[in-house]
Structures are given as C-alpha cells and as structure tokens.
Design a protein that fits this description.
By secondary structure, this protein is of the alpha+beta class. The protein is 16% helix and 30% strand. It has a single domain, classed as Jelly Rolls (Sandwich), CATH 2.60.120. Bound molecules: N-(carboxycarbonyl)-S-(naphthalen-2-ylmethyl)-L-cysteine (MD3) and fe (iii) ion. This is Alpha-ketoglutarate-dependent dioxygenase.
Length: 214
C-alpha cells in the first residue's frame, strides 16, 4: 500500500520511536472480514484467563491462532503447539491476518514479515496490562504488528528499562501499530480501559498481536 491509499481511510502515519510506527485506521475497511475470520478461531479456542508463573491472575483473557500460541502458567511464559484448554493444536492462522500483518509491517519499513502466530487479548472496561517486555519469541529482529478493535485504549510506550519515562499513545478501533528493530524490547503496557460502548464491538477492546515466534 502507498501513503496516499492510507490517507483515504486512515490518518497520517505516525512514527512514535525510531522503529515504532502507528498506522491509524489501516484496517477500518476490513473490520468485518477480520471479525469473520476471528469467529471460528474463538469458537475453537475460547478466551481464557492465564496466570503468571508466580501464581497471579493475568487480567486480560487471551486466545491464540497459528502454529504456536503464547501461554503462561506455573511453568512460565512460553509458546506451545497445543491449546492447553482443549489439547488440540491452536486453530490455523487465517490468511487475512498474515496478509494484513505483512502489509502493515511493510508500511512501517519491515520487508517480508511472515507471522506464524496471533495472540488475541480481550479487555473489558477497567482491564489494564502492566508494563512488560515481549521476550518469548525466538528472533527479536522480527517486528510485531498490533491491531486494535473496539473501545479506545491508552498504550504506554516505555524505554529499555522498566523505570524509564513512558509515552502515552491513544489506540483506536482499526489502528495498527508496528514495532521492531531497536524498539522491539521496549517496556510497554495498557492503561485501564475506560467504560464505554463501541458501536460495533460493544463494551470491549480486542487486540491482535501478530508475531513470528519461531
Ligand atoms: C511493545 N499487548 O500482548 S500491543 C501483548 O494492546 C501486548 O493488548 C498490548 O503488549 C495490547 O504483549 C499492546 C501494542 C504495542 C505497541 C508498541 C510497542 C506493543 C509494543 C512498542 C514496543 C514494544
Ligand atoms: Fe506486550
């Protein structure tokens, strides 16, 4: 996609850090198609709560699709080939998600991005995601692509140490965020979602993160 296409149904591309790019509204016209491919995935692998290795509940229910899925339990944070809830392989990663991820990555300057997993996060009003790094993927030179659907969120973009200052970045329905390179291991989180009702998604936010885990 070229810049002028982006402007037709999204806002201006915003560079938030050297290798972090916000593509406002990039998937707005493909939301229905995205929801169509997510429905069967979530039927086969429903959202579920996970706990940290220390035994604390994680506030954001998750699911996955792809050859691997991210999980957390007493044994740690990791990727598995099977859904621990059903024992079945994770549902296949829909081609549409792979395509959108590659397109967004390219628009952010990362060529040939081939996602093999999608982590699906479910937020209700009041849900937050505390500051963390994403370190379970094998190759940190690969970018991550995040798609936001539903209620708006304020995303916290930190530095390479937990105590560094954070930028607050609003993320809205249809926005896509891509980060990689030297930003890949930045600390990040999500402030508590404000109460509200999204006209298409209701009182929830769904975030898709497309990754190459292996
Ligand atoms: C990281 N999800 O699943 S994605 C996660 O909105 C996760 O559900 C959040 O963090 C969510 O691990 C945030 C967005 C994001 C954006 C830019 C980043 C994460 C980033 C820049 C650097 C590092
Ligand atoms: Fe993360």
């Amino acid at each position: 996609m070229i810049q002028s296409d982006l402007d037709l149904f999204g806002g201006q591309t915003q560079r938030l850090a050297s290798h972090t790019v916000l593509l406002p509204g990039l998937v707005l016209e493909r939301v229905e198609s995205l929801l169509d491919v997510l429905r069967p995935v979530l039927r086969a692998a429903p959202f579920r709560h996970m706990s940290t290795p220390g035994g604390q509940a994680i506030g954001v229910p998750v699911s996955n699709c792809g050859t691997l899925g991210w999980i957390s339990d007493a044994r740690g944070y990791r990727y598995t080939e099977h859904d621990p809830l059903t024992g079945a392989p994770w549902p296949a990663l829909p081609a549409l998600l792979v395509e959108v991820a590659a397109q967004a990555a390219l628009a952010a300057g990362f060529e040939h991005f081939l996602a093999d997993t999608c982590l699906i996060n479910h937020y209700l009003p009041g849900t937050r995601l505390s500051l963390h790094q994403d370190r379970n993927e094998r190759d940190f030179s690969q970018p991550i692509v995040s798609i936001s659907l539903g209620l708006p969120a304020v995303f916290l973009l930190g530095g390479h140490a937990r105590n560094e200052a954070t930028q607050r970045v609003p993320l809205n329905h249809g926005d896509v965020l891509v980060w990689g390179g030297e930003d890949r291991l930045r600390f990040h989180g999500v402030l508590p979602i404000k109460p509200g009702e999204h006209p298409r998604m209701g009182a929830r936010r769904i975030n898709l993160t497309l990754r190459k885990a292996r």
